[in-house]
Every structure is written in structure tokens, then in C-alpha cells.
Design goal:
This protein is mostly helical. It contains eight helices and no strands.
Length: 148
């Protein structure tokens, strides 16, 4: 499954095709894994948060979310640098879903109740590449912090 997704994500087609909903979910989950791994401390709290976020975002149970996260971990490990990877996702994910991606990234980054500079840098980079302003990203972060 994930090899097929990798080839669709990273094909050299002149006109990128939108991803099937499940493929888009896995690609977004791979971004969540990437932010969680940014500080070299990918732990159970972050994995659990990714599962929770995926379950809520997509209306699936935690077992299905954990399975998608597992596939996303493999995709993330094989994906190119963050810039190229994010641009490919941007071309295949609707603009209205991009702010939700940043919101989810902040949920994962703050799941250990610690603001890490590497995770923040990754979110800042991804936000810009997805066309989400720094202000909107900061608002997403503040919403997560206020909900705690």
C-alpha cells in the first residue's frame, strides 16, 4: 500500500492529481510524524496524540488511526526533504484543509507540554509552504494551549 502511495505522491506528472481521501489522510499523517520526529524524541505521548488527532479529523476509531500512523511513519521515513514533501502535499490537498493540518501539527508538537525549537521550526516551514500565515499558525498554537 505505501509503495503505491509513494509513487503517486512523488510522480513526475506535470499536472499533480488530487490524492484519494485515504491517501491524503496518510500523507497528512506523515507530516504529523515528521513534526513529532523533529526533536529526535518521538515518544508514546506523540504517537498517541497523532492517533487521537487522526481519529477526530477523519472520524475513525483509534485502531484505524494507529494503523494509518504506522503507514505514515514508513512514508515519512521514505519522503524527501520537508520542503519538497510539503509542496507535493500542498498541490494535492485543498486550501481549506491546510489550516487544519497546522492545527493538528501544533497538537502533536505540544502533546508533551513542551515547546521545542526544532518542532516549531518544522511547523513554521510547513506553514509557509502550505500558504498558512505565521499569524494563523500562532492562532492555532494559542488555541491548543488555551484548551489545555
Amino acid at each position: 500500500m505505501f509503495r503505491n502511495l509513494l509513487s503517486r505522491l512523488f510522480s513526475d506528472d506535470a499536472e499533480p492529481m488530487p490524492l484519494a481521501p485515504e491517501d491524503a489522510e496518510v500523507a497528512i499523517a506523515a507530516l504529523l510524524v515528521r513534526v513529532a520526529r523533529a526533536d529526535d524524541h518521538y515518544n508514546a505521548a506523540e504517537k498517541g496524540r497523532i492517533d487521537d488527532v487522526l481519529a477526530r479529523m477523519h472520524g475513525i476509531d483509534l485502531a484505524d488511526a494507529a494503523e494509518r500512523r504506522s503507514v505514515a511513519e514508513m512514508i515519512e521515513a521514505e519522503a524527501p526533504d520537508t520542503v519538497r514533501f510539503t509542496r507535493l502535499i500542498k498541490d494535492r490537498v485543498s486550501p481549506e484543509d491546510r489550516a487544519a493540518i497546522i492545527h493538528a501539527m501544533w497538537q502533536v508538537a505540544l502533546s508533551d507540554n513542551h515547546r521545542d525549537k526544532d518542532e516549531e521550526s518544522t511547523i513554521r516551514l510547513v506553514s509557509g509552504l502550505l500558504g498558512v500565515t505565521d499569524r494563523d499558525s500562532a492562532l492555532q498554537r494559542q488555541r491548543i494551549a488555551a484548551a489545555r
